[in-house]
Amino acid sequence: MNKLEKKNSKFLEYFFNISSLGTIGMFLVLMILLTFFTAERNFLRLDNIRNLLFFGSE
Q1: Residue ranges of the domains in the chain?
Q2: Which positions, given as ranges, span the membrane (predicted)?
Q3: Which of 2, 17, 30, 43 is 20 to 30 A from 50, comparing alpha carbons?
């Protein structure tokens, strides 16, 4: 296994072993970033946050 494969393997292990709180945090950061890159900046709405928390808690 070369260095690149080891690095990818460690990243995947970290990505799939994070807690649900970390997952919700990553989605919130992603939603905030997407808010700035959408045309009308309306991506961060209450129903999107509610859906995120609902699916993150399952």
Answers
A1: 19-58
A2: 12-37
A3: 17
